[in-house]
Specification:
Layout lengths: L1 H11 L6 H8 L3 H7 L3 H18 L10 H16 L2 H12 L5 H22 L10 H23 L4 H23 L10
Helix pairs in contact: 1-4, 4-6, 4-7, 5-7, 5-8, 5-9, 6-8, 7-8, 8-9
């Protein structure tokens, strides 16, 4: 059901996709669909959340033994590549277009994406226990996502060519790592991480 709904939302947009159309294309009964997703907003929220999670599931693990700056470089480039995937860009656009009608959905999509990116950065930095990670490391991961990932993904959502953004990604990540090194003045930037 969610795969069919994903295809329909991407092909037709939010406004022209109906629950009845999803039920028809998924070859399921309307009552089954409505029991699981009482509204189109509920279905769209499930589709967006699944799409975001799928992107994070497909991100490569960061190689071990790299210094902190190198790990951030690898993590940043991987996140940007994931965020520039056409499906991610399309869902950012659809969600933004429906933000006035479904503000909770837009905020949820943003939080799931942002929190997932921060989680990936923390994993890449070698945080052993993400629930008990050093608050400075969490702040570093949040700022990293805000400084590196969000600007490029927002540019893609507004139509900047993804190929151009990919060409700029490595330098953007490098610049952000340098800025964050100064901001956080961490003593172990040169220490390899596992």
């Amino acid at each position: 059901m969610l795969q069919v709904a994903t295809s329909l939302f991407l092909d037709r947009g939010f406004g022209r996709t109906t629950l009845d159309l999803v039920a028809q294309h998924a070859e399921v009964g309307k009552s089954s669909l409505y029991a699981r997703y009482p509204s189109k907003g509920d279905l769209f929220a499930a589709v967006v959340t699944r799409s975001i999670q799928t992107m994070f599931d497909h991100l490569a693990p960061v190689p071990e033994g790299l210094k902190l700056g190198q790990r951030l470089q690898a993590v940043g480039e991987a996140l940007i590549e994931g965020m520039l995937h056409p499906r991610c860009v399309a869902f950012m656009r659809i969600t933004a277009a429906e933000a006035d009608n479904f503000p909770d959905l837009a905020l949820t999509a943003y939080r799931v994406s942002f929190d997932g990116a921060v989680f990936y950065v923390l994993k890449g930095l070698g945080a052993a226990n993400l629930n008990a990670a050093d608050p400075r490391l969490i702040t570093l991961a949040q700022r990293f996502v805000e400084v590196v990932v969000q600007p490029l993904s927002f540019q893609a959502a507004f139509g900047v060519d993804a190929a151009l953004l990919r060409l700029r990604a490595s330098q953007c990540v490098h610049d952000a790592v340098e800025l964050l090194q100064e901001r956080f003045a961490m003593t172990n930037w040169e220490q390899p991480r596992t």
